[in-house]
Specification:
Blueprint: E1 19-20, E2 27-31, E3 49-50, E4 52-54, E5 70-74, E6 83-84, E7 90-93, E8 96-101, E9 106-112, E10 116-123, E11 130-134, E12 144-153, E13 156-163, E14 170-178, E15 182-189, E16 192-195, E17 202-204, E18 207-213, E19 221-228, H1 232-243, H2 248-263, E20 266-269, H3 273-285, E21 291-292, E22 299-301, E23 307-309, E24 317-318, H4 322-325, H5 329-336, H6 338-355, E25 362-363, E26 366-367, H7 376-385, H8 393-404, H9 411-417, H10 428-448, H11 452-461, E27 469-470, E28 475-476, H12 514-521, H13 524-534, E29 551-552, E30 555-556, H14 575-588, H15 605-615, E31 617-618, E32 626-629, E33 636-640, E34 646-651, E35 659-665, E36 668-669, E37 674-676, H16 677-682, E38 684-691
Parallel strand pairs: 34-38
Antiparallel strand pairs: 1-2, 2-4, 3-6, 5-11, 7-8, 8-9, 9-10, 10-19, 11-18, 12-13, 12-17, 13-14, 14-19, 15-16, 15-18, 20-33, 21-24, 22-23, 25-26, 27-28, 29-30, 31-32, 32-37, 33-34, 35-36, 35-38
Length: 698
């Protein structure tokens, strides 16, 4: 299982190469820049200097935050200068990162546990061993409300900071235990030296400390760092529990074993080494988020920063990029990890208890309210309809309805008028289309738990997409409050009525009612021609919206609204076109290089698309329990399903064959272009018979 964590660290992938554990609270990674869109993860492959190593990072987002508690090892007198390095002296693998810092002549190595970051710095024997702890360091110069640092013993330091970045009032606490005694601490506040006294607590906003160690001991300096969103006491408890006595090598080896087990949930073979690397790196990227937010004692920080206590065995998660991940990442996890899915949903329902609504885009223990829709809904509904039910269904429906009726981004107009006027609310078209899908999900859930009135109400709302379809242009088009179409209407230009998109990318977003969409277009042939045209018309390049990347015509694989488009062919009797475009996108939009992801990774969504598409399965409409079939990339794949069963997927020579002739499940020929979730979870063999030429009618 070859994983290359540098994939996505160049271009606009916004991934980080450092060490983390599966779904861990700590992401210990180098920061090479702090400003600009491509600093979202703190690291960019084009850089040649490192600022230091911080303990929290985002994976593939389009916004910046975290990068908390920066450590910078130094040996020279130029303690504030960035650290020079070369990529030839850099190595990364799941759970481990190392780099040689040239000017300082220090080898830096990093590994993690779920709640701890472990550093090992090997200095030259004649060099003084010094370490900067920087509590001011941040991305996009986010304001620091408060910071504190204090020495607690001869080899321990505790501290915290509260910052206002993408989220407001983010509290992070930390505890450090060094492998050797502290000789002195020089503290800096607002750029000035404030004390050299041992064991004095320092408070401020611009706060740094230079820690000097016993110069007679030339062994490597090992730093064990526990973090917590609750308290320094809990940070120390996390440290003691997970990393208290083990050596760096033992902790690294343990982390590697955890990753090996985690990644073995899917076994693939029969492809080029490059495609194997692409697959397992994608699978790895689906497992670095979301992040566990409870401490080892089950405590977690609630939205008001009071302390909550989880039931035994339960976990709380954050960093849920739901506008992105509801499409593919969340359905992938319903196959692989139902315990994780239940924990995420119960986290969402606790959010409802605390705030009166489901999360939109939660980060740390706060809410960013980023993007559109109420996409906690399809996550909950898709899980429930697949039999994942470790949560209160009645409360879930109550929470979904509350979120659907929350006054935000045009929901009031949507509920009252059946459309959202573009002159009253931005992103009106995209919001309406996504609200329609979310409401369809609510209807399916209400039906499943025998709430007939709610089923009828939300099913009716799910058809409001018809109110903004312009038959003259065959586009979903902005409509004003007096019911008139927006003019002029240029389908190739970025428009404020669409979310990070032109009208083309939202032209087909009705995953819950493809039959109704087909009728609007005038039949299967007309819809097929419209789908064909998206790949041949001129692409859009707008430097103001760099998310529009990875283009084939107006199809934009680098941003999520396009991700389901190619699978619509399978609903209209043109599945060979799904197969053709899926293979091209797998080959062209993903590479085993630092710039190998054609857009923001987006917390696992881009990678989940690769994983499931390369297996020959795609959840076009979460909540329907259907996976569209497409050509597998591998001759053989085994999915170790969450229920203990195994699904073996086999295909004849997919390196040469792009198209499907027939598909057999456990020996029985499938007659539809999809397979159901319940069939997959039975396990067995899914056999694809492939052809070099398109097989029309499949």
């Amino acid at each position: 299982m070859t994983v290359n964590p540098f994939i996505g660290t160049a271009g606009h992938g916004h991934t980080y190469p450092g060490a983390t554990s599966p779904f861990g609270a700590v992401q210990l990674s180098p920061d090479t820049r702090t400003m600009g869109w491509d600093a979202s993860s703190g690291y960019h492959y084009s850089d040649s200097t490192i600022i230091g190593f911080s303990h929290t990072h985002l994976s593939g987002t389009g916004c910046s935050d975290l990068a908390d508690i920066l450590f910078r090892p130094v040996s020279s007198d130029s303690i504030w200068s960035p650290l020079t390095f070369s990529h030839k002296d850099e190595k990364a693998s799941p759970g481990y990162y190392k780099v040689y810092l040239q000017k300082e002549n220090i080898l830096a190595e990093l590994t993690t546990t779920t709640h701890c970051g472990i550093h090992r710095y090997t200095y030259q024997s004649s060099s003084p061993q010094k370490l900067i702890i920087d509590l001011k360091h941040s991305l996009d110069n986010e304001p620091i409300q408060h910071a504190m640092i204090s020495q607690k013993s001869k080899n321990e330091i505790i501290g915290m900071r509260c910052s206002d970045g993408w989220i407001k009032g983010q509290n992070i606490y930390f505890a450090v235990r060094f492998s050797k005694n502290i000789n002195n601490i020089i503290s800096y506040k607002d750029g000035k030296t404030v004390t050299t006294e041992i064991q004095k607590e320092i408070n401020g906003k611009d706060l740094k400390a230079l820690v000097l160690f016993d110069q007679e001991d030339h062994s490597p300096l090992v730093c064990r760092v526990g973090i917590s969103a609750v308290s320094c006491k809990n940070a120390m408890l996390n440290l003691e529990t997970e990393a208290g006595k083990a050596t760096f090598d033992e902790l690294q080896a343990a982390n590697e074993l955890v990753w090996e087990k985690q990644l073995s949930c899917i076994e693939v073979s029969g492809q080029t080494p490059e495609n194997i690397t692409k697959f397992y790196t994608a699978l790895y990227h689906t497992m670095v988020v979301p992040n566990e937010m409870n401490d080892v004692n089950g405590q977690y920080a609630k939205r008001d920063n009071s302390i909550g206590q989880l039931p035994k065995g339960e976990k709380a998660y954050s960093t849920l990029s739901l506008w992105d991940t509801f499409r593919t990442w969340n359905p992938l996890m319903t196959l692989l990890d139902t315990t994780l899915v239940n924990n995420i949903i119960n986290t969402m329902l606790r959010n409802y208890d605390e705030t009166g609504e489901l999360p939109v885009w939660p980060l740390w223990n706060e809410e960013t309210y980023c993007m559109i829709g109420y996409h906690s809904v399809p996550v909950i509904v898709d899980a429930y309809l697949k039999g994942i039910r470790g949560f209160d269904a009645e409360k879930a429906l109550e929470a979904m309805k509350a979120s659907a009726n929350k006054e935000r981004k045009g929901t009031g107009y949507f509920n009252q008028l059946g459309f959202i006027p573009y002159d009253k609310s931005n992103e009106s078209v995209s919001c309406l289309l996504e609200y329609c899908y979310d409401d369809w999900c609510i209807a399916q859930f209400a039906k499943a738990i025998n709430h007939t009135d709610d089923y009828k109400t939300y099913l009716e709302r799910s058809e409001y997409y018809k109110n903004i379809f312009d038959k003259s242009t065959r586009f979903f088009r902005p409509k004003s409050s007096d019911g008139k179409w927006q003019t002029p209407f240029d389908t190739y230009k970025i428009n404020s009525a669409y979310t990070e998109a032109t009208p083309w990318q939202y032209r087909f977003f009705v995953p819950h009612d493809v039959k109704g969409l087909t009728t609007l277009f005038g039949g299967k042939s007309a819809l097929g021609k419209a789908l064909d045209s998206i790949f041949t018309v001129q692409p859009t390049v707008d430097p103001e919206i760099p998310d529009i990347s990875g283009s084939i015509g107006q199809y934009v694989h680098g941003n999520e609204p396009s991700h389901g488009i190619i699978y619509l062919y399978s609903y209209i009797g043109q599945a060979w076109k799904t197969q053709k475009w899926a293979r091209r996108i797998l080959n062209e939009m993903y590479q085993a290089t630092p710039d190998g992801i054609c857009g923001n990774e987006d917390c696992g969504q881009m990678s989940a698309w690769f994983v499931l598409t390369s297996l020959g399965l795609y959840p076009e409409c979460p909540g329907s329990n259907e996976y569209i079939l497409t050509t597998p990339l591998f001759e053989k794949a085994i999915i170790n399903l969450a229920n203990g069963h195994k699904l073996k997927i086999i295909a004849n020579n997919p390196q040469e064959n792009t198209y499907i002739s027939d598909v057999y499940f456990n020996g029985q020929k499938l007659t539809a272009p999809y397979i159901l979730h319940r069939q997959i979870m039975q396990g067995g063999t899914l056999k694809f018979v492939l052809s070099k030429q398109p097989v029309k009618g499949i």
